[in-house]
From TrEMBL:
The chain holds residues 586 to 865 of 865 of the full protein. It comes from the Bacteria. It comes from Marinobacter xestospongiae. Residues 24-279 form the EAL domain. This is EAL domain-containing protein.
């Protein structure tokens, strides 16, 4: 009897596994088709300075699938990193962001001064042709490199540090900036900070979220801001939702702010109409 039960359970797991595998394959093929058929879009979330004036935007990818509706990046970026789809998607994102940056550059202020931040995943960064692809995207669009910023996460640094440094130096030689996203959540040592040519640290939203009720999180935010100042890096807080969080970060010396308090990620037309109301 026990044996029989076991058999049933195995059969159940097999069916369940089968279903999961089939779904993943379907998602994978839908992603490829989606890219081919123009179902991806960039949304833009404002980053503001201490006076709450727009300083730049972060490009965040969105997928509208005819079968699934809007799919958030959290639901497909991890899979895309695993199966390599992030490489063609990342190319598209970079191209699109550079194209938009060039358009804005040619418009009056505040558009012409916006810095465009683009997320780059570890898998993408480690492609041998990555630097060349950034260079090509800049050349194709005519976007000014000094207004392009790449956001990397610490997962990038899991590989050989010399190799990473060489790649970062070649990116910096193009004139672009490099930011370290979700800072404080990784497991790597802090040693790489002094060895890598970074421009910016981005305090992870986890620390910002509980700033007002956790002395520990407030201490970490304060430490990151002090560390950034010491190393002459700019520092951005992400996930700022409340005015008391903004005020606390401002008092700690944070330079840039991003979060629902200022703006949600918006479609192109929406972010443009928001910015039209701003005096340069
Ligand atoms: P991230 O780069 O850390 O982006 C910040 C995320 O926080 C975004 O989620 C944004 O919508 C969200 N956010 C911003 N302000 C607030 C706030 O005040 N409160 C809360 N609760 N959330 C806020 P999103 O757009 O869902 O993106 C999630 C992640 O997906 C990104 O995290 C990034 O790691 C990845 N991602 C998005 N677009 C791309 C892309 O084009 N390429 C790559 N490689 N990854 C991307
Ligand atoms: Mg980011
Ligand atoms: Mg982040
Ligand atoms: Mg994040």
């Amino acid at each position: 009897r026990a044996k029989e039960n076991g058999k049933n359970r195995v059969a159940f797991y097999d069916a369940e596994m089968q279903r999961i595998v089939t779904e993943r394959l379907q998602l994978e093929s839908d992603l490829h088709l989606g890219l081919k058929h123009g179902q991806f879009q960039l949304h833009y979330q404002l980053q503001v300075d201490c006076q709450q004036q727009p300083a730049g935007v972060e490009a965040l990818v969105r997928w509208h699938s005819p079968e699934r509706g809007w799919v958030s990046p959290g639901a497909f970026i991890p899979l895309a990193e695993e199966n390599g789809f992030i490489v063609p998607l990342g190319h598209w994102v970079l191209d699109q962001a550079c194209h938009q940056l060039a358009q804005w550059q040619a418009a009056p202020a505040p558009f012409s001064q916006l810095v465009m931040a683009v997320n780059v995943s570890a898998r993408q960064f480690h492609q041998p042709a990555f630097v060349a692809s950034v260079e090509a995207a800049l050349a194709r669009s005519g976007a000014p490199p000094r207004l392009l910023k790449l956001e990397l996460t610490e997962s990038v640094f899991a590989q050989d540090l010399e190799l990473i440094r060489d790649r970062l130096q070649r990116l910096k030689a193009l004139g672009i900036r490099v930011s370290l996203d979700d800072f404080g959540t990784g497991y790597s040592s802090l040693g790489y900070l002094k060895r890598l040519p970074l421009d910016e640290l981005k305090i992870d939203q986890g620390f910002v979220r509980s700033l007002h009720r956790s002395a520990g999180d407030a201490a970490i935010a304060r430490m990151i801001i002090a560390l950034a100042a010491e190393m002459e890096l700019t520092v951005v807080a992400e996930g700022v939702e409340r005015d008391d969080q903004f005020q606390a970060l401002l008092a700690m010396g944070c330079d840039r702010f991003q979060g629902f308090l200022f703006a949600r990620p918006l479609a192109l037309a929406e972010v443009e109409s928001r910015l039209h109301g701003v005096d340069a």
